[in-house]
Amino acid sequence: RPTLSQDGLKSVIYAVESAVIQWSRRVQGVLKRESSQPLLQGENPTPRVELEFWKSRAEDLEHIYNQLRAIKARGMARLLDRVHSSYFPAFQAMCRDVVAALTEAQDIRTHLMPLSRHLEILESLEFPEVKPRLRPLLHVVCLIWATCGSYRSPGRLTVLLQEICNLLIQQASNYLNPEGLLRSEVEESQRKLQVAVDTLNFFKQMFQDRRENLHTYFKENQEVKEWDFQSSLVFVRLDGFLGRLLLVQDLLKTTLDFHTLGKLEFSGIRGSALSRQVQQMYDEFQEMYRVFTEAPYDCLDPQSTEFENDVSEFRQRVEDLDRGLGTIFIQAFDDAPGLEHAFKLLDIAGNLLERPLIAQDASEKYLLFVRMFHKDLDTVRVIYSQRVQEEAELGFAAVHKNMPTVAGGLRWAQELRQRIQGPFANFRRIAHPERATEGQRERDRETQTLKQVPGSELSVQSPTRQLTVGSRPEPDA
User: Fold this and answer.
1) Calpha distance 16→247 (Å, rounded)
2) Mean pLDDT of 269-295
3) Rounded to whole angstroms, how far apart are CA atoms 108 and 124?
4) Which of 49, 62, 112, 150 is deepest in the core (most CB within 10 A)?
5) 81 pLDDT exceeds 90?
6) What is the pLDDT of residue 28?
7) Does residue 387 contact residue 462 with C-beta atoms inside 8 Å?
8) How far is CA 120 from the centre of its chain?
9) Which of 113, 11, 142, 8 minimizes the C-alpha distance to 52?
């Protein structure tokens, strides 16, 4: 076998050491790769990226390991060892790092494989059908945490959970169709938004539930390692998306409230003028809302500040409309001839009266309703007292014309009861803070007083039980 000269040996050693340096740099580049890099670069990867990363990492490291085990590489290692090269310890450390990284990657890839099936199911479903699959998905995540020591680190798990959030955001966005969300029927868009909000909040609830029951996934003799990271790290993007959904929901609710204006008509002395003012406001609102239907941006993108700016300006203009509507409703209430007409106006106004600025302007009128009801109660009290006195003095009381005595007495009691219960039921339907005021308490006390009159239960609760019916019908007029 020919022997190398001293200079030739040095050249070979130099070439081997140079190859080891280049090889070491490339291997270190592979070893330093993390699945979190797409997230750190501002991308929004899904769990598929995580699974593909560990699959590719295991394959790459296996290829490197096979190269290190090749005869040529082992010969280079023996040469470096024989000449006591300073690069030999580095070569050994590189080999150990590759073996450790390969073992870890293969372990993680194996434990992540069951997740693939759940992701396939999740991705194949329509978004309204996703909710029942979220608990099984998180169940698998918990099993991975408990059984895979290589993956049991907060950094790696938060990456996987953030990627699951990205998948849900992607599916929710596709389901809602941002381009047509504000152009479609408001009720349909609201329904879809509620489905999305409920599903995403359910995922957060399931996360918290599994977090609290994480100990059930560990064996009895196994040390339990909790998820000691902050949940905000997981839901940072999901919470931003949810906030945007709620913003769009509020916008659509306002739109639905103001759609009532297109059908609103007033009666009374100023009814025609008030109706024209309302129609003008409705036309103005339609023009304001057109900004969103013609906008080119994605209204569901939390990073889009244009949408937030438009909503802010929209809200300011809506406040002006609310104040104007409050004034109109005050005038309409003033024109109401009685309690029945006032409650009809409440029914016509619908949810508009629940808007804070309008409710603030209209709140004073609720006391007027109470006073009107007091007046009706006083009238009922007088009618009832007169009948009781008539029965006491004459032994009978007049009934409706051409009606039998008993039936006429029952009809009278029912009509008197309805005169109280009709407005009383309307008051109960009013969801307004005025119900907690002294005026409301006075109305309740007035009703209780009427109930305490002997036999008054007949007119308020059960007029058919204790009413003394007269024996003579009312004479013909």
Assistant:
1) 64
2) 90
3) 25
4) 112
5) no
6) 86
7) no
8) 25
9) 113
Burial string for 280-308 (b: 16+ CB within 10 Å, else e) reads: ebbebbeebbeebeeeeebbbebebeebe
State the Cα–Cα distance between residues 464 and 70, nearest whole angstrom: 104
Closest CA to 390 of 467, 461, 459: 467
Which residue, among 315, 350, 330, has the nearest Cα to 277 in the 3D structure?
Answer: 330
pLDDT surpassing 50 at residue 456:
no
Helix ranges (DSSP H) in 298-363:
305-335, 339-349, 356-362
Q: How remote is the C-alpha of 248 from its chain's centroid?
A: 11
CA distances from 135 to 140, 156, 202, 211 (A): 9, 20, 9, 12
- Of 69-83, 146-160, 214-228, 371-385, the one with minimum mean pLDDT is 69-83
Token output for 214: 């994480």
Question: What span, in angstroms and rounded, lies between the C-alpha atoms of 99 and 145?
Answer: 23
CB hemisphere CA count around 171 (13 angstroms):
25
End-to-end CA distance of the chain: 145
Q: Is the pLDDT of residue 436 over 50?
A: no
Decide if 248 contacts 300 (C-beta within 8 A): yes
Cα gap 448→446, rounded to integer Å = 5
Cα 325 to Cα 331: distance, rounded to the nearest angstrom: 10
CA distance 71 to 198: 60
Q: What is the C-alpha to C-alpha distance for residues 200 and 66, in angstroms, rounded to an integer?
A: 45
Q: In a 10 Å sphere around its CB, with 0-12 CB exposed, 13-18 middle and 19+ buried, how is residue 461 labelled?
A: exposed
Q: How far apart are CA 354 and CA 346, in angstroms?
A: 10
pLDDT for position 266: 80
Q: Say whether pLDDT at 429 is over 70.
A: no
Residue 296, classed as helix, strand or coil, is coil
Q: For the chain, give the number of residues.
A: 477
Owner of token pair 């194996």: 110
- Cα-Cα-Cα-Cα torsion 325, 328, 330, 331, nearest 10 degrees, comes to 180
Alpha helices in 148-270 (DSSP H): 154-176, 178-181, 186-212, 231-259
What token pair was written down for 225? 């390692």
| pTM score, whole prediction | 0.77
pLDDT at 148 (0 to 100): 96
Pair 145, 152: CB distance under 8 Å: yes
> In the chain, helix, strand, coil percent, each to 5?
80, 0, 20
Helices (H), 32-87: 37-40, 47-68, 71-82
User: Are 299 and 292 spatial neighbours (Cβ–Cβ below 8 Å)?
Assistant: yes
How many angstroms separate the CA atoms of 263 and 45, rounded? 48
Assess whether pLDDT exceeds 90 at residue 10.
no
